[in-house]
Design a protein that fits this description.
single chain, alpha/beta, 36% helix, 8 strands
């Protein structure tokens, strides 16, 4: 395994949802030993602390979208931070609710454009996060990042993403909570979306392997966005959007090990960890363990020895 320079960036974003607590996520991941786990795998780790948004002025008349101005300020700050971190090595963003990915994906995609490489995104999530502020009935912007980074309209108050990611370069794994308007939007897009029924019927390795092959053939950079609710809540309860029937620990570790085997991942989000809802740090440790699997940890190095 090749040693990498890992740049850790805290993104204590709590504006994308009305349920507070995700702002504690970066410190929970630090306490659970993320830096030590990566260092133990031979990587060079630099923790740059937490990003903060620039000044913003809330609009008290904007009742349709929760904390639009604050999330736009976070997006600007994280786009700049991600673009810079992607130049330095493996950028790992410690969240924070999923609205942080409006900025992290926009920033790494801008870096990909800077160096002339295509950007791909693997979205590990129970939700598609493909609403726009116009289609969202909740008004929570943690349900909008994939729409924003693929260049969908409707994001008034946000700077356009500097390098929109082509929809055909996005793959979602783990879907099991998608409403009607979002389902229709996905059907009309080129995003590759795989729900838990498909995974139950055919396994998780097949769609993931096909996507990783496409990234490799294109010479692309791969951003992985790992939401706590990708996992079944029996393993990872510390999330405000629990949806039963998620990935098992075995499936999740397989996903991360396959990502590591591919050598394609260049940036990673760890999002929607709400320590206020956790059980003695259990979910934070799960996220650290999965990140370690994505960065080279395994029980045995393959090929394993066969015995008659």
């Amino acid at each position: 395994m090749l040693s990498k320079t890992c740049v850790l960036i805290g993104a204590p974003v709590d504006s994308g949802t009305r349920r507070p607590g995700c702002l504690m996520g970066p410190d929970a991941l630090r306490t659970a030993g993320l830096a030590d786990a990566l260092t133990g795998l031979g990587h060079d780790v630099h923790d740059r602390g937490n990003v903060a948004p620039g000044p913003f002025t809330p609009d008290p008349t904007d009742h349709a979208v929760h904390a639009r101005a604050e999330t736009a300020a976070w997006t600007d700050a994280l786009t700049r931070a991600a673009r810079d971190a992607a130049r330095q090595g493996m950028a790992i963003f410690m969240g924070g609710d999923h609205s942080l990915s409006l900025g992290t994906v926009a920033g790494v995609a801008a870096n990909a454009q800077d160096i002339g490489r295509p950007q791909f995104v693997l979205w590990l999530d129970a939700h598609a996060d493909f609403h726009t502020p116009l289609s969202s009935t909740s008004g929570n912007l943690h349900g909008t990042p994939l729409a924003y980074v693929t260049g969908c309209p409707g994001f008034d108050g946000f700077a356009p993403p500097p390098a929109p990611v082509p929809a055909e370069n996005v793959c979602i794994l783990g879907l099991r909570s998608v409403d009607g308007p979002e389902r229709a939007a996905l059907a009309n897009s080129a995003i590759s979306a795989h729900d838990m029924r498909e995974i139950d019927e055919g396994g998780i390795a097949r769609p993931l392997g096909a996507f990783l092959d496409r990234v490799a053939r294109a010479g692309g950079l791969l951003h992985v966005s790992l939401d706590v609710d990708f996992l079944d809540p029996s393993f990872a309860p510390a999330v405000g959007t629990t949806v039963p029937g998620g990935a098992t620990m075995r499936e999740a570790h397989l996903v991360m090990e396959m990502i590591n085997d591919s050598g394609l991942m260049t940036s990673l989000d760890l999002v929607e960890l709400n320590p206020f809802l956790d059980e003695r740090g259990r979910t934070a440790q799960v996220m650290v363990d999965l990140a370690a699997s994505g960065m080279g940890r395994r029980v045995f190095d393959r090929p394993t020895r066969a015995y008659p």
